[in-house]
Amino acid sequence: MLAKPHHFIPTCFSSPTKLPAVVHRMPSQVKIAPPHAISIPTSNKTHAPSPSILDHAADDSVAAYWDYQFLFVSQRSETTKPITLCVVDGAIPHDFPSGTYYLTGPGLFTDDHGSTVHPLDGHGYLRAFTFDGVCREVKFMARYVRTQAQAEEHDPATDTWRFTHRGPFSVLKGGRKVGNTKVMKNVANTSVLRWGGRLLCLWEGGEPYEIESETLDTIGRLDVIDGCDSPPDSGKNSGGIWDVAAGLLKPILYGVFKMPPKRLLSHYKVDARMNRLLTASCNAEDMLLPRSSFSFYEFDSNFKLLMKQEFNIPDHLMIHDWAFTETHYILFANRIKLDLAGSMAAVCGISPMISALSVNPSKPTTPIYLLPRFPDKCGRSRDWRVPVEAPSQFWLLHVGNAFEVKDVNGDSEIQILAATCSYQWFNFQKLFGYNWQNGKLDPSAMNVDGGENEPMARLVQVFIQLDTNGNIKRCSVEPLNQRKDSSDFPVINPAFSGSRNKYIYAASSSGSRTTLPHFPFDTVVRLNLCSKSTHTWSVGNRRFIGEPIFVPKGDEEDDGYLLVVEYAVSVQRCYLVILDPKRIGEDNALVARLEVPKHLNFPLGFHGFWAADN
């Protein structure tokens, strides 16, 4: 195993950002004071100070500045053989199931020629924690996904990097700008899945990469929808203006920018009741048109395609996550629009390609599309093209679960558990606080202060009541809890996916640091949907967490364990934490903490997957 030193992203902060008034209204329209960014002073240091020195800093804003940077330190090292992790707290329980926790996310943010990239454009770095239930030990591996972009940008002989692909969110300094058509940089860094004997790393907008599960070697791209779709229509046979526009865009996007005709979404769903994998894709040209075409695919446990459906929605949408029930696919309309000035700058290489788009908060409500999953079984039903209008405006971030319940009269109610935010907070060009103009990270952009009506991520429960014919009777949105702290990455026991559940878990903020009140997260929250009770477990000062994962071990919904990675930036270490979900809120919730070797300390991960041994 070769170990290389960490590469740190020097960071400075811009002046506090002023954002427009928040329009996240729940449940009624109210006037909200404009939020403002938490003020964190700029550091003049080009090298990070010792984390131990920051423990004694008189001003926490200085520590907050560097703690955020430590969370996004590049890791160039990989493992060639599994490493047994040391248990530093507690013990691995005797009944912990055998299996592997896979976690993916970016691993590299800087190259050796002066360029930095947005975290969303960082090369995919797959981490694997394999549990041996007999020996009660955990082995760790971490490898980069050998994508086409990675092969072009990394020289294995010298172990150096030169970024050549712009990526949707970045602008290169050391690479070609004008005329650089390498925009769709598939870095396979967003989510991970093991299904049908295949381990896949997914990205928002391209084919997933298949990984060998034992060695984490990259096998290659896997077109899971190959043969599922008819050849793309040139648009010549259609008379609509947007069909004509699509026909003009396709040869440019497909030929010049090398975009795939169908963009597979990184979020998938597993229907535990039917043992099916559900995926979704959208057309590449729809990113630039005021319409959206979505295809949904369902696969059996052997990856055999069982069914496919297409839906054309007359609105300009950006979908990251979605929901399903036993009768519907559900899309929350995250509305966007084309930014002409931004488009010109993006094409010229002056700004990121994402600047061609902006959010569109022109509607005070949130359209929700209920798409029939099994049209032949629906009988008489409402027109799915007419969306349900949720009474408040919000941007959907992630879905925890969705399910349907019927009453004695045959009416049904759909409930969706999700994390949302305001349109004003969701700024394409400021996600994770990345400033593409100077290549730096600014945590104040993720910690705006909106007073009582906080625009950051929050957990909500959406209720949609339908009559026997599928007509809408009522739609409402309620906060899942009364906590004002930010929360995201809602998860449940995966065995209850698509079915009614009682418990939901999420990453949250304790709000204990005034300079980092909302993000990064430092708390696991457990919500009981029946009693409306909330319990939390916090990781401690100057330590953060990512997305929790539920590991089932029995038939009861809360019978299992929670896994979450602790990013101890105060000592620049990563720990795998095992929690007892039943004891969240109690002193003994921590079951075990396992330490990742310091030379393999890794940056913040995005999404994970628990794969139990058969």
Automatic annotation (TrEMBL):
Free-text remark on how the cofactor is bound: Binds 1 Fe(2+) ion per subunit.
Transmembrane segments: none
Keyword Zinc carried by entry: no
InterPro entries assigned: Carotenoid_Oase
Residues bound to Fe cation: 320, 398, 607
Molecular-function GO terms, alphabetical: metal ion binding; oxidoreductase activity, acting on single donors with incorporation of molecular oxygen, incorporation of two atoms of oxygen
Cofactor (UniProt): Fe(2+)
Pfam families: RPE65
Keywords: Dioxygenase, Iron, Metal-binding, Oxidoreductase
Homology family: Belongs to the carotenoid oxygenase family.
Protein name stated in the entry: Carotenoid cleavage dioxygenase 7, chloroplastic
